[in-house]
Amino acid sequence: MIRFTPILLAILYALVMYRLSVWRTHRELDAKSTELADPGLKAITDRLAAALGLARIPVYIYEIDPVNGLAAADGRIFITRGFYRKYRNGEVSGEEMASVIAHELGHVALGHARRRMLDFSGQNALRTALIMVLGRIIPFAGVWIANLLTGLLAARLSRGDEYEADEYAAALLTKAGIGIAPQKSLFAKLDALTRSRAGVAPAWLMSHPKTAERIAALERLETRWQTAR
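and the corresponding structure tokens:
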């Protein structure tokens, strides 16, 4: 029984961290967000809603500056004030903002938003268990190895989710009559922003696949759809 104690403790830790993470995230979003009331964007999100057979898609402005879009575990979609500001300044078009919203809807529809919270807790639990086990075998390098392994796992899960959400968004945007072009142009704009700011990436690109690879995947998707017609 003693040999399994680190694993049992890690599982208990994961459950506690999951509940705390959900509570903390919802409290933060509730305190710092209001529903989007922009008529121009509402007209575009109404097209997405009609394509999904919904009356509307409620989108919220999250009052933080980093350029980001978020899908909460409860299904709500958030655009940060920093991202919305770029739209208001004319740096990002309404269709490009719609591609962000469609992408985040993909995370909700495909179960990524809820699973990510579980993954985060599970990864922390795995890291804790590995540190406990490897720390006994390799006292000094155990922590470094545990962090490396869980980091690689997290990156792989995140990249897979992003490609799936991109594909969902492409299908939704096409069905809504908007098309895939805004997705690709937004990726290019954010990538250019990264280069202009000495490698500081907008939050929406962090932990994501490389921009060129995402655009190439969308172009392969377009080709596949055209061939299937």
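(Above: one complete record from the training split.) Residues 142-175 form the longest helix (34 residues).
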